[in-house]
## 1
Amino acid sequence: MIELYHFWDSFCSFKVRLCLEEKGLAWTGHHVDLMKFENLASAYLAVNPRGLVPTLKLEGRLVPESSIINEFLDDRFPEVPLRPADPYARARMRDWVKHEEDELFVAIRPASLNLMMKQVLGRFSEAELDRLLAHHPRPHQIALLKKMFKEPPDPAAVERSRKALAAAFAKMEKGLAEAGPWLAGASFSLADIAAAPVIDRVERLGMAALWSSLPAVKDWVRRLTARPAYRKAAPKDEFRMPAAIRL
Ligand SMILES: N[C@@H](CCC(=O)N[C@@H](CS)C(=O)NCC(=O)O)C(=O)O
């Protein structure tokens, strides 16, 4: 049995759900609600000592980190391959996965925090935050996190997200136009899977105009979001974070 510890509206979790759905693998979920800090409860820290989702469990063994999980799934269940066979195309695929980790993931965080997450996390009292964050695996971050949750939404941080996302999408436009139709070339791969959850989040943040003048990205978004697996893996409405506020 494949078990996934995940939060429906976390995009690292979406990345793994999409890989599972593309491969047609049945899985059982354990929902770890990040908006209630369930990732920092001792029960989950025993599963993932970093206190991050997702974590995969298979045959009694745990695998953390979304990109590592997806490669593991592709090794363990090779029937529907999601990595190109050609070594150069495979290297390009990994470079696009790194682009997601280093650029897209980092770019989107300030907007998600300020426009969506603060609506929930800002409601906790100082005492509640002290209790919920008490076992944080990176204790040096606690003071900063508390300050971040409590501060009013910051338009400059949202603007930073918008600029960084625009740069990341421009890079994708160039890559797709030169060697598409998928990020690693001819075949749909873990590279497309890594970037897919960003599309959902950008739409939810009301920033889809970022790719309106990028024809190759626009076409990639259309093909990607039409895939049945994308719809199955996307966050369920009842588990979504609140709609983004407008600043
Ligand atoms: N590199 C990790 C990142 C995991 C990560 O940061 N997960 C977020 C949700 S997308 C999380 O658990 N955040 C909770 C926290 O930072 O306390 C991966 O790809 O799995």
## 2
Amino acid sequence: MARTVQKQKPIRTCTKTYANYTSFKPYIREDFNKRCGYCDDLDIYHGGARGYQIDHFKPHSIARFTCLKEDYSNLVYSCPFCNRAKSNKWKDIDGFIDPCDGEYDHHLERDCKGKIFAKSIIGFYIFVNLNLFLKRHELLWMIEKLEEQSKEIDNYLGILGEGHELELKILREFRKIQTEIKKYTNLFYNEI
Ligand SMILES: [Zn+2]
């Protein structure tokens, strides 16, 4: 079943003004739910806020957008992979779509294994220009899913009591497997 790339829609709520856009980082991080606006990867898998960057949706290197350099409405919390890929690329028609815009979801989707797909020509432009085909986006999505499942198992283990010995035994076995897998995914974080 296809789903939107973003688990939760980012919304820009910060009303402050700063002379330097980097001062917005703590606010934009929260507004973007600690995720890259484009690929939705969680920043905790890449050094948290320190490892993530602020992208200028309309590149300030283009003369007519220079005035937007410190404009919060033009900023996107971004992983270094998407930010680097996007760089100063811009296309006025059928180009990038602001990830805070609901329209973003009309052009890109994700399958049940976390792989990102383009749904339209515009989506394909974004997909190719942001390297959304990178395996890391798929892998990090799967790792996150695995961690959610681990938490679910913990919840059941906390709820089940006497009279459920078999269920408890099965869940404990699952837990062991999950812990083992997690060891490897932790090793993997810095490699992808
Ligand atoms: Zn990204």
## 3
Amino acid sequence: MNNIGLYIHVPFCLSKCPYCDFYSVKPEREATDGYKKAVIRNLKRYTQAFSDICFDTVYFGGGTPILLHEEICEILDIAGSHIAENAEITIEANPCITDADKLCSLKRFGVNRVSFGLQSANDNELKTLGRLHNAADGEWAVYLAQKAGIDNISADLMLGIPYQTQKSLDETLKAVISLPVSHISAYMLKIEPNTPFYNQKLVLPDENGYAELYLKTVNMLAENGFEQYEISNFAKENRLCRHNLKYWSCEAYIGIGPAAHSYFGGRRYYVTRDLTSFIKDEIQNEAISDDNVGGFDEWAMLKLRLTSGIDYKTAYEKYGIDRQTFEKKCRLIPKNMYISDENGIRLTPEGFLVSNTVIGILTDI
Ligand code: SF4
């Protein structure tokens, strides 16, 4: 199996943000302890079944993984000999739960990347999102990580927050750019069914408003050295997220924990969102039946999320689809939404704005 990514879903949060549909529950002692043991049990199954397994990226996502920093140190210790020397090891962190001791012990156990859910630098917007931190907490947390010796720091931002304006976004971007972060993810707020936001009458930007917020973000980040490499992701100093690149490049990764996904051996797997069953060892990775796994549609759809796009040579070698076929499809798309040259095709920020439609047209071959 060799090099592979490892994703561990940590399904605990202190409270539920009203827009979030990720799987998480309250961190009761008994549950966190049972969860840790279940993760270790699953991890050992993989390392015993594939003795040559080597995790070159490890990502603790959630939920709020930093709540379980001691358990995570133990898990990293056990995974130890199967983690590559130069592995990227990321933990997602909520600023108000971050402190110097937690970051220093995580660093000692190999964590070398922190992704902070800052979302905004505007206190009213953070309150609207139900976040437990304010803007000052966010800044403080980033500096704590830097002081702990972790210099690969990412910040998550949200676009389209109720009442967010061009001006407030401008202030958020300026504030975040001034911090020692080398990676920024900027996601559009999506109102998911079964969340409190779904049943509220929220004042949200219209289509044009979203477009302005997104294009402003892309331009301002580019002007400040953050190169866009995916629809929602920007990096400077070449600090692209190696783990997430595996998802978009159809590379193998193992997911452990309730609600985690995996992709290996040419198949996709999913663990049911049920902590109790996970702890009791009643659920395993279930194969997702999908005829298209590893097929052209999936490959092209993921590649077109990246600014590097599709290269014609690979498309032809892997799937027998040539440049002329793509160029015929391009005639159906406005010219400002893509760039096509002798090497391949990629979307522009205007194309990313309507990526579902554009990618649907380009992959309908
Ligand atoms: S902290 Fe993150 S995972 Fe937890 S509820 Fe809020 S948005 Fe969701």
